[in-house]
Amino acid sequence: MTKDKETTINLRSLIIQTILSIVIVLVIVFGLAFFFRKELLGFSEHFVRIFGYWGLFVGMILSDSLPAFVPPDAFLMLAITGEMDPILTILSMSFGSILGGSLAYFIGLYLIPRFHLGRQMVLHYEEKLLPYLRKYGFGAVVLSALTPIPYSWMAYTVGTFKMRYSLFLFGSLFRFVRVTVYFYAMYLGWITGG
């Protein structure tokens, strides 16, 4: 199997996974809107009143700098059910995500190499992410910004391997695309489920 063919197969698989994840999110939101609309409206009303756009921004910083904190899609759900403005939601969440990824990058660059436990933790994920870095280089950051590849772990990894921050930041700008696509997929699920 040639290298080009192997790259195409992996990219095709990632594209299929991404499309499937968007469809799954849409179906889940449809189900939530159909069965739990009243409860979600009540919860999101409190979230919007108390935290607003700053809550989305800070939530995304935490989500994309601390793996397994809260999935970013949970904040999208709160924004949609709380009837927050789409543009402000997308901007606050995207900027929060990029800032969170940048924090993860600098943790990978400066802190993780100094601590054995941190290095061991990242090594587990590096094994899964290194093939993407080897094949796509900077493109691996773009792929993690758009696809189900964990963005925060990619940020730790490229920081650990000392990728130039400007390249990482440029690739991270694709988080705007991901947040926008998932926002409207979830919005479609919400309005069709109610």
Automatic annotation (TrEMBL):
Limits of the VTT domain: 77-187
Keyword Transmembrane: yes
Keywords in alphabetical order: Membrane, Transmembrane, Transmembrane helix
Transmembrane regions listed in the UniProt entry: 14-36, 48-70, 90-112, 133-153, 165-190
Record's keyword annotation contains Protein transport: no
Signal peptide (UniProt feature, chain positions): none
Listed GO CC annotations: plasma membrane
Cross-referenced InterPro entries: DedA_domain (IPR051311), VTT_dom (IPR032816)
PANTHER family assigned to the protein according to its UniProt record, in alphabetical order: ALKALINE PHOSPHATASE LIKE PROTEIN, DEDA FAMILY PROTEIN
Name of this chain's protein: VTT domain-containing protein
Organism: Leptospira harrisiae
Organism lineage string: Bacteria, Pseudomonadati, Spirochaetota, Spirochaetia, Leptospirales
